[in-house]
Amino acid sequence: MHSPLLRCPRCGQVDAVQKVSAISAGNQAYELYTRGGRVSHGNERKPFATGRNPYQTPLSERLAFPERRHGCSLVLLITFAAILTPASAILAWMNYGTAVSDPSSAHQTALLLTLALTLVCVAIALICSLMRTRQRRLDKPRRERALTLWNTLYYCHRDDTVFVADNPLQIANSRTMHTLIGY
Asked: Which residues cross the membrane (predicted)?
């Protein structure tokens, strides 16, 4: 007789299998109930919150969908768009006032250099913004495929195993779950 419940491909048991998205959404630490009492599983001594999210357990944090962050382009965008461009524009405005009151060649050169610096900062900020938008657009189909696959993953608390229900050969440890979804 075949059971409708999902079995773990490693241990073959059904009592410790739970959907990964349910664990992540519920932010819960799974506990096995034994004759001797409750036993927390997944190398978590205390099922309480982690430092990143005050309501997320280490297990649910490990099993959460891995979000990509495009940090370098964001840092460059903020640096050039929010800091360097306004600073160089203020400096160009101050040089403009000095060049109008004293039209010497040194002041004219300083004005031209600060205007060129402002234009370079604006150009770099625009390029960073376009690169960030392009990267997000290119990453979107891959992210959607990975999210669809992540929604089909199951976790066995007994073995600390993540697996795909339809294909028991696709199996990984909870710490290397990203290899299953390819993201």
From this structure: 72-94, 106-130
pLDDT tens track, the chain, 183 positions: 455 677 888 888 877 888 888 887 765 544 444 444 444 544 444 444 444 544 567 888 888 888 776 667 778 888 888 888 999 999 999 999 999 999 899 999 999 999 999 999 999 999 988 988 888 898 889 889 988 888 889 998 888 889 988 887 888 888 888 888 887
Handedness of CA 75, 78, 83, 84 (dihedral sign): positive
Count of structural domains within the chain: 2
Q: Are 140 and 133 in contact (CB under 8 A)?
A: no
The DSSP bridge pattern shows strands 153-156 and 161-164 to be antiparallel
Residue 10 lies in a domain: no
The first and second tokens of residue 143, run together, are: 């992210």
Domain that holds residue 55: 17-64+153-181
- 182, with CB counted inside 10 A (0-12, 13-18, 19+), is exposed
